[in-house]
Design brief:
Elements: H1 2-12, H2 37-61, E1 75-79, E2 83-84, E3 96-97, E4 102-106, E5 126-127, E6 139-140, H3 143-153
Length: 173
């Protein structure tokens, strides 16, 4: 909660346009559970979503230096630096995988949608980056495309910052 408050203060006072907050889980042990996934991850998710609720509440009640609600001007990205398999391993855990999930919410984002997915072999499915819809003629969703989409949302030219990344515009409202 201290990280969240500091981040919201920095956004509200115009000190920063971007903030990064780390959630390491219970006692700082993180999310790396290769066994007994359900028992380990349940409390981690409870803590994460409690923190997200606190963040969204703070963004809703605080305003920036222009008097605008932070909720109306802030986009929140929740992600991990590492993917996990969609299925459980032999010890009911999750192993490392090149695909991951992320959640994007807030200003400029079309909500209540799932973009991307995986097939029966847990390989990423192709999507149309313009619409976010699954299609065989699209691209496998990459973190570079997500980042390029966020740069476009901020009014920046993604090509100036990310080499060969096509922006995921389908997540933008």
């Amino acid at each position: 909660s201290n990280q969240l408050s500091c981040a919201v203060d920095a956004l509200a006072k115009g000190v920063s346009r971007c903030a990064s907050v780390v959630y390491t889980g219970n006692n700082g042990l993180g999310w790396d559970s290769h066994a007994d996934n359900d028992a380990t991850q349940s409390s981690l998710f409870e803590g994460l979503f409690t923190g997200l609720n606190q963040l969204m509440h703070q963004l809703n009640v605080r305003v920036n230096e222009h008097g605008e609600r932070l909720l109306d001007t802030t986009t929140v990205v929740v992600c991990s630096e590492m993917g996990r398999t969609a299925g459980l391993n032999a010890t009911n855990g999750k192993d490392h995988w090149p695909f991951t999930s992320l959640m994007v919410l807030g200003a400029g984002i079309t909500g209540n949608r799932v973009l991307g997915g995986w097939d029966a072999g847990y390989q990423g499915q192709r999507i149309d980056l313009q619409t976010g819809e699954r299609t065989d003629s699209g691209q496998v969703l990459s973190i570079e495309s997500v980042g390029a989409g966020l740069l476009a949302l901020a009014g920046l030219d993604p090509a100036e910052h990310i080499l060969d990344a096509n922006p995921l515009l389908g997540m933008l409202s």
